[in-house]
Specification:
It is built from eleven helices and 14 strands. With 341 residues, it is α+β, with helices and mostly antiparallel strands. A five-stranded mixed β-barrel has the order 3-4-7-5-6. A four-stranded antiparallel β-sheet has the order 11-12-13-14, with helices on one face. Strand 11 and strand 12 form a beta hairpin. Helix 3 packs across helix 4. The longest helix is centred in the middle third of the chain and has 14 residues.
Length: 341
Amino acid sequence: MEFKLHNGSGGLCCKSCGRQDKQLNTYDWLADIPGNADESELVEVQFKNTRKGYFRNSNKIPLEKGDIVAVEATPGHDIGVVTLTGRLVPLQMKKANIKSEADIKRIYRKAKPVDMEKYNEAKAREHSTMIRSRQIALDLNLNMKIGDVEYQGDGNKAIFYYIADERVDFRQLIKVLADAFRVRIEMKQIGARQEAGRIGGIGPCGRELCCATWMTSFVSVSTSAARFQDISLNPQKLAGQCAKLKCCLNYEVDCYVEAQKRLPSREITLETKDGEFFFFKADILSNQITYSSDKNIPANLVTISGRRAFEIIGLNKRGIKPDSLIEETHRSEPRKPVDLL
């Protein structure tokens, strides 16, 4: 049965969106344009949640997003899901820096029941293969961790994803693995963040990990991002499930850097007739600074705006000491509640 979403303008194609648990999914905003699939014979095919490739539909098979296809591989064939067709595919290849079209392999056919039986048999062996390969690597005293195993659709080849801090000589490991599993072996090194993305999990925010849902490229995160946001440098709280700094530290840092430009330097001391006041803490986004009359401990705390702090700094430079940090108008007139309605 074919489902279509109907809106006020008529029929809207449901092929634009892919499965939302795929971070490699691309929204096809040209999907409902007639003849879009015929614009290019190139097709985007996704295998696991972290791997996709581009293939040539030289046999002119009518393909739509979501179709399961058998594609050319070395050796044999692989089974994947079509995630994009039409004129957007060459643009996605350009984004992925795939320049040579000579290396693009072919799509053989839509997957048959026999292909799916082989595929399911191969996939069922992945977990047990990973557990056994970890034990083999341990017996060979290799300083590495095998995080995931992906079998090719026909079961003739297996990709072992591993993480290692140092260079690993796994020539002996490949021989042992090939004898144990009777398949062609390919080793791929991944980082700790990529491993967390493959395994998945729930973050402290209560949502699924960003690296397992939508992130496709990882930007380096430094402790300066935490300093700009006034977050305490506690490694246990700042580290994610990959044991690296959380990627979300980078999300709001630009906003904090911009907001800090509206605050005076923390090293500047404010002078009033009551005495000197030292920086104690700042609420960066609300542009509020709290000053203390003692440099080492919180005493006689006064909270003022960044604008008022710049005013006092300007007065101090001219040799003028105000009566207090708080403006007189604010002291005499208590703030009235605002009726938002």
